[in-house]
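Exercise 7. Given the encoded structure of a 172-residue chain, write a plausible sequence.
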C-alpha cells in the first residue's frame, strides 16, 4: 500500500461509502472486530480531514471502538460484496469473520488492523462522539424508518481524524 494525502483522493466518496461500503475495524492485532457500514461521510472539520461513521451500541465492533483511540475504514471494492454480507450480518461474537470471509489482516505501522484486500484505507483517530438523540430530529419520520420496531438502538456518531490514507498501487 502507498500512502497519499487525503486531498489527493479521487474517489467519489458518495459512491464509495454508499454503494461500495466499508469495513469499520477496531481493536488490537491480537483481538479486533470488523463490521460492514454504509452510513458515513468525509469532510473538513477542526482544520483536519475527517470521516464520520455511525455505529449501533449493540454491534460487537462498538465495544472495540469504545476501548481504542483509533480505527480503520477499509474499502474493498464492489467485487467483495460477499465479504460485506458476512461482516454486516454475522456477529464477531459468534463467527470468526476472518476465517469465514478469507480476509487477510494487515497491521499498519501505527498498529491498526486493516486488510490486504483493501483498495483504499483510512487510518483514523477518534476526535468526538455522541449518541443520536430522538428529540433532536427535525424530520421525525426518520425515527420510525430507521429506529422503529425491529431496527435496533440509536447509533453513536464518531467523528474521526483521517491520519493516514493508504491506496493499493495495483488497483487502477
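Solution.
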Amino acid at each position: 500500500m502507498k500512502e497519499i494525502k487525503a486531498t489527493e483522493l479521487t474517489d467519489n466518496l458518495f459512491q464509495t461509502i454508499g454503494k461500495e461500503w466499508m469495513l469499520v475495524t477496531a481493536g488490537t492485532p491480537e483481538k479486533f472486530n470488523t463490521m460492514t457500514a454504509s452510513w458515513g461521510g468525509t469532510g473538513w472539520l477542526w482544520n483536519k480531514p475527517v470521516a464520520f461513521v455511525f455505529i449501533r451500541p449493540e454491534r460487537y465492533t462498538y465495544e472495540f471502538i469504545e476501548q481504542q483511540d483509533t480505527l480503520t475504514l477499509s474499502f474493498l471494492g464492489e467485487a467483495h460484496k460477499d465479504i460485506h454480507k458476512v461482516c454486516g450480518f454475522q456477529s464477531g461474537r459468534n463467527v470468526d469473520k476472518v476465517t469465514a470471509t478469507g480476509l487477510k489482516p494487515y497491521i499498519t505501522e501505527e498498529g491498526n488492523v486493516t486488510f490486504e484486500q483493501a483498495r483504499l484505507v483510512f487510518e483514523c483517530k477518534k476526535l468526538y462522539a455522541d449518541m443520536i438523540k430522538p428529540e433532536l430530529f427535525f424530520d421525525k419520520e426518520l425515527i420510525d424508518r430507521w429506529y422503529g420496531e425491529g431496527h435496533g438502538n440509536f447509533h453513536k456518531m464518531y467523528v474521526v481524524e483521517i491520519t493516514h490514507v493508504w491506496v493499493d498501487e495495483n488497483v487502477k
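Remark. The chain has a mean pLDDT of 93. Students should compare their own answers with the one above.
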